[in-house]
Amino acid sequence: MTTASSVHAAGSAAPRPHRPVSGWWRQIRFALRSLGRDLRAGELRVLALALLVAVASVTAVGFFTDRIGRAVERQASDVLAADLIATSGFALPEQLLADIAQTDLQTARHVRFPSVVINERNESQLVAMKAVSDGYPLRGSLQLADIADPATVLTDGQGVPARGTVWVDSQLRAALALVPGDSLTLGTAEFTVDRIILYEPDRGENAFEFAPRVMINLQDLESAGLLVEGSRARYTLLMAGEPAALESARDLLDSDYKTDVRVQGVRDGSPQMKRALDRAQRFLGLASVVTVLLAGAAIALAVRHFALRQADASAVMRTLGATRGEVIVWLCTRLMLIALVASALGITVGWFAQLILANLLQGWFGLNLPAPGFMPPLIGTLTAFIALAGFGLLPIIQAGRVNVMRVLQRDYSGMDASAIVTGLLGLLATFLVVLLLSRDFLLSAIVVLGVVAMLCLFAFAGRFIIRSVRALAGPRFRLSTAGLQRRSASSIVQLAAFAMGIMALLLIAIVRVDLLSAWEQDLPANAPNVFVLNIQADQVDGLAAELASKGIETTGIHPMVRARLVAHNGEPVLDEDSDERDERRARREYNLSWSDTLPEENKVVAGEWWATDGSAPPLLSIEQEWAEERGYAIGDTLTFKSAGVETTASIANWREVDWESFQVNFFAVASPAMLKGMPATYVTSFHIDGDFVSTTTDWVRQFPGIATLDVGAIITRVKSLMDRASLAVEYVFLFTLLAGFCVLLAAVQSSQGERIRESALLRALGASHRQLREAVIAEFAILGAIAGLLAAFFATLIAWSLSRFVFELPFQLNVWLWIIGISGGAIGIATAGYLATRRVMHTPPIVALRHTN
């Protein structure tokens, strides 16, 4: 018999206790026990691979740029060889040197300029000359080796080159085959080769100097006759000392010599290196962004398939008392564990991948790279979790909240997430990843929207082409095109992913070469390929006679005055409101020239040329684009300063200049009255058909101090650097193609059940295994060919746009672009698709039909 108290007790025990924390913890432990089984599951292997590719791409770029950045920070003072430097294109004012000498700072000086050396075998070489004073370097140290034993670093006191000796780097030693006892001719003096420069601390500040280094004592500079007033050179004062003294010196330079020198300290870093690092990070980072976005598509497909597969288990857990929150925690924890494993593997792959990047690009920066910091692995891990949350969280939430009765009735319609909501969450995740990488809100938005717009363009074009192929396909390919049409959404996602990756590789590998070839072919056959600089006034007639005797034609030997622009219409170009850009312009040294006649291949487009009889007052002719950019009108006055002397003239006309002619051209050409008495050197250019070295070596001996530049050698060097940079970008874009293959695997995985049923029915109706294999290969080959076709089309369109509107070059259609794009896409994707679907074709029909539901 039941008593009231027992009924009360039973009633009080009926409510289920609230145990959210313990329930959730039980689901987490359950998820941990499921990790091994999850890693063996097909859809989660694809998810892990997609996350791994995204993390590896981000961390490879992150590791490399972080190591470069840390090297710049750690070696900041070494990169300058001082704590503070003041640099000018003119000889440093004596008063400036006297003012700094009265401070408590250590000082040293060096002068850099291009020159030519000649060895005892009469072989010449363009070099980057550097004359250094005692005390150099103030920070860091040179690493030297004896000319007789280049492999052994000297450990004794280094100092600077002794008078009459020269130090060279390994590049020049190899180029001229220098041995102990050799001497080099520099200007009018002979120097004995004494040391090999293995490492120069401040060479990184000028990482893009192509010529090999030659270093002499500063006191030998005058006796060698290498420089005279007006020669093209960079003069640098190095300073080191206590912070207070450095700050005082910097204030002095900024206040009294702001327009004379550019001041740079450790806190400023190296502007050239910062720009190079920033550009490298942006170009390589763009490939990472595309990879993350495509990997996100694979993540979305894999997680959706995972959520559908887990619907039954979720329903069972719900019937056994688990709450919706507990089910969601169980599913999310399993995905988070996969993300952790993928992140660890991706970081490892990224580390090894960046070693190749460092090998390709380290020479640009000239730094010893330290170990990276903790940020790249952290950013890589955050990338995995942000991508997983953005592209995969919504299906998991819906799987946890699905109605149990619907699952038991095999009705999964409630689990289909909104495509718009899923897409927006994916875009938000990609934007957060880009923002994490760039720390620039506007740049992140532009990059993401640009990439998405390109993918949408590929998707719409691909959808149209698939329909057209379906309509035109014959009986042989009808089965393959029917598969593309039935799985159109999945096919379009795959097509867009592969088209983006293939297009990027085509642009970098082929279009870049085409543009360079078009530029070279556009040059006139007799375009100058030799420039001669630093010609002194008393050498002009002799050099002109020498050129004429060899039958070499020039457009003339032109005077050149180096000067700074200090005022426009009487107003200083620098004032209290000037920004950094104005300061750079004010410190820039311009090459001015004078002439009574209009230079060849120049055309006056506004105003009139002055009298050609030498009677013209001080007047200026300004290059049109430069004038429009700076806002210089005809009638305005410009004031230039050279060697401490200011000169002013009115703008008489604008000229149109063909900069691509390789003739000697100037932004500003003056009437002789303006620049009369200014220190000047002369410059000329011409074309030679013979060997550069044999043609020019005698001139260097005959006219000491001149510098001969081989344009062909410089172009070859630039091409080499571009090839390495392009290879690095191509290398990073390989991750994009891997992400595309992840999309393919995820799409095949999500449609595997459908494909197995189709295969079983076709086999039951008499189709052979060979027919099924050919249909699958043809389906993916058609998909790859369409992706390659779109990639080739848009790569060609971009190449035409660059040729027509940016470089103004004649465009030539490259048939190989289309052949490689279409055939490569078809073969590559067909192979990957066949390998991914082999299980489908090997499933016996009876097994497939038995498990149709």
What does this structure look like?
The chain is of the alpha+beta class. It contains 29 helices and 22 strands. The strands form 2 sheets. Strands 2-3-9-6-8-7 form a 6-stranded mixed barrel. α4 runs antiparallel to α13 (375-401). It is elongated and about 100 Å long.
Quick rundown:
The chain is an alpha+beta fold and about 850 residues long.
Keywords:
22 strands, 29 helices, alpha+beta, 853 residues, six-stranded mixed beta barrel, elongated
* Average residue pLDDT: 80
Low-confidence parts? 1-21
Q: In this structure, how is the largest beta sheet organized?
A: 6 strands, mixed, barrel
Global outline: elongated
Lateral strand order in the biggest sheet: 2-3-9-6-8-7
Please count the beta strands (DSSP E, at least 2 residues each).
Answer: 22
**Quaternary organization:** single chain
The whole-angstrom Rg is 35 Å
Number of helices: 29
Content-based structural category: alpha+beta
User: How large is the share of residues in beta strands?
Assistant: 15-25%
Distance between the termini: 51 Å
In percent, how helical is the residue content? Answer: 55-70%
